[in-house]
Write a structure and sequence with these properties.
Layout lengths: L9 H39 L12 E6 L2 E5 L2 E10 L2 E5 L4 E5 L7 E2 L4 E5 L2 H36 L5 H34 L1 E3 L4 E3 L9 E2 L5 E6 L4 E5 L3 H13 L13 E7 L4 E6 L5 E3 L2 E7 L5 E12 L2 E6 L7 E4 L10 E5 L34
Parallel strand pairs: 1-20
Antiparallel strand pairs: 1-19, 2-14, 3-12, 3-13, 4-11, 5-7, 5-10, 6-9, 7-8, 9-11, 14-18, 15-16, 16-17, 17-18
Length: 386
């Protein structure tokens, strides 16, 4: 007997399909939930094990470095003063006449005897020639009177003339001698007046403005011409405090006073007075020095190219470089350019430079010598013992 075949009705078929479909959907939903759980678990585990990546700092700053200069300097006190000439002469015409030539220019440096003004010499030349002629006339008359007196003296010895004639011959001889002397004085005076038409500088120095022009009439001993002042040595008048005065006197007595540079006459100036003997000092450029409130500092580069902040005590300027009194050693490598890019204990990329290239423009305080011991742009800055 054949087995019975399972026969489903259409309703049963629909029910079966619906049931099968629901089972499949449930399986799919279960599988999707598992996948979501796995993904979420993966993100959670990754978040627990997440580590921040290392932050890379900026590259080392490029800076210029140099060892400090070592030179011999002197400390100075500065005061405001005014200069005055040691010699001052107001030139005045010594003869009257009209100006015909002015060979100098206002403000020129002149030497003693240089021509400043030329007064018309023709009237004085004629007067001189006239005096010379009168002198020759007097000398001729003197010769005649000398010869007449000699004859009268011989005749008197022979007792052939009267004493009155002898006395007259002697008087005429003496008068002729006096006339020669007077004529010589007149000639010399005329010669002086002729020379005075050449108005020359009585001293060497600087001449002021001319005051008169060509064609002006000048009067003897009254018309003022330019002023000439000496400039080789000058006076400087200034006020000084008691402490600086005592220091100056002490250094003068000890023979340690350094000389000051020359100045210009008649101007305001800064007067420098030495306040210390010569001493060796370290110097750096002003642009290498930073300021932290009331403290000054520099950056010193060590052997590992790390910038170390170093507090220093500064002094005066010397040839554009700043004196460092303390806080710095001769072998220290100082950053002289680019300190604005540097932070304490940061890495730098140093490049060798010369300290003097970064000196300031203020060179009012000079050095006393040039015992520089730092190299000029070499590969390695070295020091030499002064």
């Amino acid at each position: 007997m054949l087995p019975k075949r399972l026969v489903h009705s259409p309703l049963d078929r629909r029910f079966y399909r619906t049931k099968a479909t629901g089972t499949t959907s449930a399986k799919r939903l279960h599988i999707g939930s598992e996948r979501l759980i796995v993904v979420a678990l993966s993100f959670w585990l990754a978040g627990c094990n997440n580590q921040q990546p290392a932050v890379q700092g900026p590259p080392p700053a490029e800076v210029t470095v140099s060892k400090p200069e070592q030179k011999e300097v002197v400390n100075w006190n500065e005061f405001t003063g005014r200069t005055a000439a040691v010699k001052l002469v107001t030139v005045t015409a010594r003869v009257s006449g009209y100006i015909v030539d002015i060979p100098f220019r206002e403000g020129d440096l002149v030497h003693k005897g240089d021509l400043l003004f030329q007064i018309d010499p023709r009237p004085y030349q004629h007067a001189y020639e006239q005096a010379v002629g009168q002198l020759q006339q007097a000398q001729a008359n003197q010769q005649l009177q000398d010869a007449t007196f000699a004859r009268q003296q011989r005749l008197r010895e022979m007792r052939v003339i009267a004493s009155e004639d002898y006395d007259t011959a002697l008087s005429n001889k003496n008068q002729a001698t006096a006339q020669v002397i007077a004529a010589q004085a007149a000639r010399d005076s005329a010669q002086l007046n002729l020379e005075f038409t050449h108005v020359t500088s009585p001293i060497g120095g600087r001449v002021s403005r001319q005051l008169v022009n060509i064609g002006n009439l000048v009067q003897a001993d009254s018309t003022r011409l330019p002023t000439v002042v000496s400039i080789d040595l000058i006076y400087a008048y200034f006020s000084i405090d008691e402490l600086a005065a005592l220091t100056f006197q002490r250094l003068t007595r000890e023979g340690k006073l350094a000389s000051s540079p020359d100045g210009k006459v008649g101007v305001h100036l800064r007067v420098r007075v030495a306040s210390s003997p010569k001493y060796d000092a370290l110097l750096v450029a002003d642009r290498a020095i930073g300021s932290d409130q009331d403290q000054s500092f520099v950056y010193v580069v060590d052997s590992k190219n790390i910038a170390r902040l170093r507090h220093i005590k500064t002094g005066q300027l010397a040839e554009g470089l700043r004196v460092v009194k303390s806080g710095l050693q001769p072998d220290d490598v100082v950053i002289i350019n680019g300190i604005i890019k540097v932070r304490p204990d940061s890495s730098v990329k140093p490049q060798q430079g010369a300290m003097e290239r970064f000196s300031s423009n203020d060179i009012a305080t000079p050095l006393t010598s040039s015992k520089s011991s730092a190299s000029r742009g070499g590969a390695d800055a070295t020091k030499a013992t002064p």
